Amino acid sequence: MRVLNRAALLLCGASALGCTDGYPTNDAVRLDAMSPVEHVRSLNRYLELSRAQSDTRLTVIDACTLSSRGEAKQTRIGLRAFTVTFDTRPDSGEYLVNVRKPAAADSGQVSYAVKDWVAATAFRSHLQQLQQLCLDGSRSAATG
After folding, report:
1. What digits encode the pLDDT tens for the residues 91-109?
2. Mean pLDDT score of the chain, rounded to an integer?
3. For residue 51, what is the domain's CATH number?
4. Among 137, 62, 120, 38, which Cα is nearest to 86's?
């Protein structure tokens, strides 16, 4: 009986190893391989999926600045230093992604409504990747 149990255990272990063999490694988008324009395109897709933000668009002004246009107003977002927090709208359940300069007054905050928590965390990640690209570019220019 012990031999049969060990054989079954070895067979299960070997079959589990076979599951990873040949698994495609390019299924997920590598965020660190995206350009600023690709990050902004992804951010705009999340905004399009939200009922509240469907007319809002982000564009790249330069390596460290985004423009946010919607609801008849335009805002600049500096990528060098900002914080991102989440909130929810009680009436719709949509998530709000709040982008704010550190120590800024309430007028220094821009909020984007997105569909759900997954979209909110992805939105934040794209913003953080843009910030990192900005900071990396600034360091390269300073040392180059």
Report:
1. 888 899 999 877 655 567 8
2. 79
3. 2.30.29
4. 120
Give bridge partners of residue 111 from the DSSP assignment: 98
Taking a C-beta distance cutoff of 8 angstroms, is the pair 131, 101 a contact?
no
Instruction: Compute how many other C-beta atoms are within 10 angstroms of the C-beta atom of residue 90.
Output: 7
The token pair that represents 27 in the structure block: 């299924």
Bridge partners of 23? Answer: none
Q: Is residue 125 part of a domain?
A: yes
Structure confidence by residue, pLDDT tens digits, 108-130: 788 899 989 999 999 999 999 99
Give the Cα separation of 43 and 59 in Å (integer).
10
How many domains, the chain? 1
Beta bridge partners of 47: none
C-alpha 11/C-alpha 13 separation (Å) is: 5
66: three-class secondary structure by DSSP: strand
Residue 12 lies inside a defined structural domain of this protein = no
First and final C-alpha spacing in the chain: 70
Residues 6+ apart with CB under 8 A from 53: 47, 70, 112, 113, 114
Q: Which helix (H) or strand (E) holds 114?
A: strand 109-114
